[in-house]
Amino acid sequence: MTIAVARDVDQAPATPLIEVRGLVKHFYAPGGRIVHAVEDVDLTIGRGRIVGLVGESGSGKTTVGRTLLRLIEPTGGRMSFDGTDVFALSAREMRQWRRRMQIIFQDPFSSLNPRLTIRAIIAEALDTRGYAKGRARLDRTVELLELVGLSADHASRYPHEFSGGQRQRIGIARALAVEPDFIVADEPVSALDVSIQAQVLNLMEDLRRRLGLTMLFISHDLSVIAYACDEIVVMYLGRVMERGSSRDVRIAPLHPYSQALIAAAPVPDPSRRRVHVPLGGDIPSPIAPPSGCVFRTRCPKALPACAETVPPLTDVGQGRFVACLRVGAGGVSL
Fold this sequence. Notes:
The protein is of the alpha/beta class. The chain has helices at about 60-70, 90-95, 120-130, 135-145, 165-175, 195-210, 220-230, 245-250, 255-265, and strands at about 15-30, 35-45, 50-55, 75-80, 85, 100-105, 180-185, 215-220, 230-235, 240-245, 315, 320. The chain has an eight-stranded mixed sheet with strand order 6-7-8-3-9-10-12-11, with helices on both faces. Helix 3 crosses helix 4 (about 135-145), helix 3 (about 120-130) runs parallel beside helix 5 and helix 5 (about 165-175) runs parallel beside helix 6. The radius of gyration is 21 Å and the shape is globular.
């Protein structure tokens, strides 16, 4: 999918709502083997901003999102949400914070209970958090449906009676029911037709501006990320390769992996010359990641030192961070 970028990114600084430091998530496979799903990830999301997490399947994007919400527990690291380390909260304490953190799932059909009407699906979220009862609950349900572009008539229907785009709008309404501050959108448009994708993306941008939402937007599609997000974080095999504003990463990617992702995206202009970036093979297994830089086995610019040193995520100026031994201060290739 390719969508023309419809807006310029506001570069004004924003107070961080989410600050993640040294996030680690390991799973354990048979035989005592360790799956290195996420390794030493740092992430900052400004209040009212949308940060995009992009990378191939298996890069650890969804694991990061679900770990931040503690849908799965982290192995290590710290996450400050509005000044509170939510990783240190007990299960009882975390229950109170979940109202402020919600998720929009990738599949808008399997994430909705097929036995419940839309009214019941949204009301279930309201009931769980002790929100409006009786007539007030029905009014709130209709208000949420109208907020995402649906109507009161849809409340009595079941999920199978809606299109994919409508079901995703229902999923968004359910996430908004408890008035969260932070939303993880996990591949929210990947299961939708291209024209419907644009509608849902525009809806999410409108909701961000109207409600002041902060979002982590996860996708494998760089064109979607560039359209929807203020900042882009590029992940590969559980590690952050590059971070910067949407405009900077899209126009002038610094890391070889970011360059390969940009080059792979189709461009709807036959007269525009494209630069080919060779990227062979598949992403390695997280059970046995390469030594040093995890991208080196596929990198066309790898150095011998890349096999020995894990490149740190380095500030190269102007809000750009790159984990590459070839990139020095100012984003200059060495």
